[in-house]
Amino acid sequence: MNAVTYPKGTVKALSRSLRIYHGDKQRHAAMDRLYGAFLGPGDLAFDVGAHVGDRVSSFRRLGARVVALEPQPGAARVIRLIHRRDPLVTLVEAACGDHEGSIVLRINSRNPAVSTASAAFIGAPASVRGPEEQAPSEEQAWDHEIAVPCTTLDRLILRYGLPKLLKIDVEGFEAHVLAGLTKAVPVISFEFTTMRREVAEACLVLLETLGPYRFNVAIGESQVLELGEPASAEAMGDFLRGLPGAASSGDVYAILTA
């Protein structure tokens, strides 16, 4: 991996991420309730795009083993510091996509949560992308590029086993990640944004090729599923297309029914 020297402001940005993602106990409790419906002690979870590891911490509170992927050196260092003494957390400093090798990661050094391997994500309107994505507009600049290792979900499963839950949050690169998966995982969550709904629709199509999934959704960081019963891929696509732009983002949950 290329050596990276981040400009002044990156430490401040990571500190903001820690406050947002690790500093709210009520949010932690809501997250644990949500993931606790899918994950229990001894289960295996993959966190693809772990950032500073709030989901890693939730999965561990539930007693699960975790494989966390995070290609950004600064965020990966945060995860190492938080979980360095936990043998049930494995950190893989790599991106995930549809091929093995390397990939260019576009770094937003002042707002690392929106760093991405997707050029289309960067080119989309800046109406933005998650809780800390309410950062000032001058912080929405991708000012570095680094080459990082890239692996696939199939390769991760071969090495670590089939997870009970797979979480994907990679800023517009979600469909590329799912394109590297050929095995049905019991529960898969992936981030969507209203500025690039076509990515979510591509994810729905890919998941339908893997198995009989039904779908639910949590808006923003609510950690609450919106639908009383999981819906078909077609119905979920209609739901996402009908969301106002102000909904911004959230997570779709794909639940294997057989």
Automatic annotation (TrEMBL):
Check the record and name the Pfam families matching this protein. Answer: Methyltransf_21 (PF05050)
The UniProt keyword set, sorted, is: Methyltransferase, Transferase
SUPFAM superfamilies recorded = S-adenosyl-L-methionine-dependent methyltransferases
Chain ranges of the Methyltransferase FkbM domain: 47-194
Keyword Transferase annotated:
yes
Q: Which InterPro entries match?
A: FkbM_mtfrase (IPR006342), SAM-dependent_MTase (IPR052514), SAM-dependent_MTases_sf (IPR029063)
The terms under GO molecular function for this entry are: methyltransferase activity
In the record, biological process GO terms are:
methylation
Does this entry carry the keyword Methyltransferase? yes
Q: Could you identify this protein by its name?
A: Methyltransferase, FkbM family
Native organism is Bosea robiniae
